[in-house]
Structures are given as C-alpha cells and as structure tokens.
Amino acid sequence: MTSTTATAKTSAGAIVESTVDAPLDPDVAVPAVSTVGTPTASATDLTVAVVGLGYVGLPTALALATSGAAVIGVDVSQGRIDSIRRGDVDLIEADRTRLERLAGRDDLELTTNPARLRAADAVIVCVPTPVDRSRAPDLGALTAACQTVVAHARPGQTIVLTSTTYVGSTRHLLVRPLTAAGLRPGHDIHVAFAPERIDPGNSLFPQEQTARVVGGVTRACTASATKVLSRINPTIHEVSSAEAAELTKLLENTFRAVNIALANEFADVARHLGVNVTEVITAAATKPYGFMPFYPGAGVGGHCIPCDPHYLTWQLRGDRVASPVIDVAMTAIAGRPRQVVARAREVLGDRGRPIGGARVLVLGVAYKPGVADMRESPALEIMSLLADAGATVAFTDPYVGSVAGFTACPDPTAHAWDLILVHTMHPGTDTTWLGEQTAVLDATYRLAELPLRETV
What we know:
Layout lengths: L1 E8 L5 E8 L10 E4 L10 E5 L5 H10 L3 E5 L3 H9 L6 H10 L5 E4 L10 E4 L14 H12 L6 E4 L7 H12 L9 E4 L18 E5 L2 H11 L5 E4 L3 H32 L3 H8 L23 H11 L5 H27 L8 E5 L14 H11 L3 E5 L10 E2 L10 E4 L17 E3 L10 E3 L1
Helix pairs in contact: 1-3, 4-5, 7-9, 7-10, 10-11
C-alpha cells in the first residue's frame, strides 16, 4: 500500500485529482474520487454501442454522438427504431434538436442486430428493470441484454451497466459469464456499474449537468468506464466497487420514496387540521439546512420510485434482513391511488351524488408533467378503480392520446362533469375553466385559488 497524489486528464478534458492510499494491484477496487471537467466534442475516436433505446438509452446515444463518438444504438424492437427515425419519440427539446441533426448520419447507427456489438469499443446497457404485478423484480429484459452483450463481447471492450437493479447484479450477470468465457475483467475486458440519472422531461438538469457515479469491478475497470462517460458527464464520482454504485442508485430513489410517502401523510394530517399543506411545505423549505421539500400527490409513477426500492427489499427479504421504514413507505405509496378514489367518493357524496353513475374527468394522466410517459402512472389505477365503482370516466391530456378502456376528451368544457380529478398539471395547462366547476378534487395540491376545490 502506498500513498499517492495523482493528477490526470481524460481524453474528454476532465481533470482527476486525488490523494489516496491506493493499492497498486489492478484487481483491487478503486477508492472514492471525483472527476470534474467539461465534456467536449472531438474527432470520432471511440465507438460506443448503447443497448436499449428508451428514455435513458436514446438520450445517452444522442449525447455520445454529439460528443464525437460513433454510436451504435441497439434495440430489440424494430418499431422503436422506426419511431426514432421518424422523430416520433418523447424527448426534451435539446435532445430532439440533437436527433434532428444526427438523422441519417453515419455516426448514429440504429439496429436490431446484436452482432454489431462486437464493433464497439464500449457497450452501455440501458434496458428497463420493472416490477411485476406482485412488485417483485422483473429481470427478464436485463438478463437477456446482459446475455447478449456477453455473447458478443471481445477483448478490449468496456461494458457499463446503467439499469437500476439489485446489489451484486453486475458481477452475477456480467462478470461471472465473461470470466467463464475466458475474458477476465480488469485485464481482458473492463466492467463497471454507473447508474443512470436521467429525469424524463426535465430540461433544467440534463445528463451533461448531472454528476455520474461509477463503480468498476477493479480499479482499471473504473478508470476505463470513467474515460467513456466523462465525454458526456461533467462530474464523475468514482466509488470503490460496482456494489457501492448499485446501492447508491437504490438509496437515491428509496430516499425519494420515503419522503414522498411522508409528504402524502402530512397532506392527510394538514387536511384534518384545516391547514394548507403546500403553504406549510413552502414555509419549511425556507430553512437553509436540514430540510428538503417533497410535495404530496396522487401517487408516484415512472420507472424509478414505484419500482427501484422493491429491488432492494426483495433482495433483503431473501437474506431475511428487515427494512421496516422502506416497507411501510412502499406500502403507503402503493395504497395512495385507493385513497384518492375514496376521497373522490367523499367529495361526490358531500354533494349528494353517489359515485355509481357519476361522470368523472381525470385531468392529466401522464405520470409527471411535461412527458407522455404512462409507466406506473397512478392515473391508470385511479381510473380503473373509479370505473369499478360505477363511475363513467374520461380523461384529457395534451401529451397522451389514448388510454385503453377510457375515452379521451380533447375539449373538457364541452361536457358536464360531476367531478374533475386533477391528476397531472402539464406546463401551460389552462385551468380557468375549472373555476366554473362545482366539484374539483385537486391531487396536485397546486390549485389553491379555486373557490370550490377539494384536496385528497
């Protein structure tokens, strides 16, 4: 063991500075260090394959191609590739502009052919990791993607897993089969975990302005993955192992889940006490330390908060390790849509209208503002529960054209409604017409100016 002070510059211009007691053996995991720099475009000197072209993979591919890398985008769905070529995809404006500029160029290849992975210097895996109906991890896509990557791996490649998953998955799904195939990580090939931090629809924090955590299975693996990712991420924070990086991602989204569950509970408390919960949260947020604002809502959606903590609790249950705080929070989150429907029943009942036969309009059904993403949206369960209770349910959403089993209502002012349930407020949504409605259930807690508005 020796104490070293090192300063290095990556090919993308990022500066690495650290003073650590660093083991010299390349098979020993890297100690924590941060890499800070500015991604810069350069001549095409790197070919990167991105496996999975969804909400993480496509922006990643676009950023890499813009940085000067040659990119091979691989997806199992020809339909998805066709949609990308048409530009019929949900992207922030900056990424849409990139896609338009890269359309038809040789440095962004789109294919369903996994054999093209062998042409890449680096492979980045960005496939979904959902949960099933019982909230158990669905590892089908991840396992298949890793098997494909291993089958086409070659010496000299760097393989980076970004999909959120259980701790140990990088070693189980990549390192072990690569080793069995005769490719030793840290020597013949490099393997790392670097969790994605892309927030769909959020142009304030694009990936180029968000730090990236990288944990390799050896020190050499971390360094190699850092060299690739520093092309598109300004700050790389290296951790000591792939497992540390995997648990980092699970902590990030479990933290959010627990605090959202608490915010929802405080909303119930505030309504009981006759206090505006949004006013209280805003006031608490004036404290410059020890508090971070989270806001209540109709539930949580998307591919992170409703799913990721279950990868941790699933693993812990298998090891018979208790996680009571996380378990309670996830149970509360799962039950939130039923609370919304129970409250809708109350609001209708207070106006002398039973829920059976009531005409209910859900305003906004995407899981968050500014996107067309319906994954795990609470609106889906809410609408189904309302319909099961006998209500006639329709929806209006400028980003979502259809929801199976429900009628879209482009002009909600053309109909009479017994209840408007405000689920998602997209940017620029006109809410003036809500002032004329006799019953508005605001699950966003943002419409305090409405005279007859109720909250969940």
